[in-house]
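Progress narrative, Year 2. Work on Integrase catalytic domain-containing protein from Lasius niger advanced from sequence curation to structure prediction during this period.
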Amino acid sequence: MYSDNGTNFVGAAKELNLAYQAAIRDPNFLNHTALDNTSWKFIPPSAPHFGGMWEAGVRSVKHHLRRILGENTLSFEEFTTLLCKIEACLNSRPIAPLSDSFDDYESLTPGHFLIGSALTTPPEPSLLHLNENRLSRWQLIRHLIERFWKLWANDYVNTLQQRSKWRELQPSIKIGQLILLRNATLPPCKWELGRVTQLHPGADGLTRVVTVKTATSEYKRPIGKLCILPVQSEAITN
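Result:
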């Protein structure tokens, strides 16, 4: 385990090594990993760029975290709470539909791999309209989380829409497909998902407008306001 400057975290490395040695001596553990066809792949020390996608996520968090913190000074407990809330935001993002059922609007998220279900937070009144000098310490944390969510969610949705549809012909959205609706008013960890119920092709036969049904309503939207989920996007492209 290494820090950004390449120094070895001796204590953490020792604990991880002890845990690893205990695991490989356990026949039950080895049998389970063999049955699951588990293979371990490690990146070299001082080479975080080998991490690919997850390091890109870390970079995104650092970038927006610096922007929202500004001149604020947080205690250890406050900063830990903020990071936990940010972690929930990142791990709530939809990846793929959980089923092909037309009435199922649930999606697979990173949270499913961590706790077996989606990560949720109770909705709370927005504090973005209040000045920071009027906030209590807990309200300040909520204020920072909301600001992070607005910046990061918008940045993440933009990456989902970075498709070369204007330069070359792409496969059309299909009826029954689960998509993400772009909605800047949602609170942290909330995403608006819906199923495409109807296509509205233009005179050239290309679909630029669709009807989308969510769990609560039905909308007619241009495809520029919709995002194909990452796994679906890769499947369609391939």
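Strands lie at 96-97, 107-108, 178-181, 192-201, 207-214, 218-222, 226-228. Residues 96 and 231 are 6 Å apart (CA to CA).
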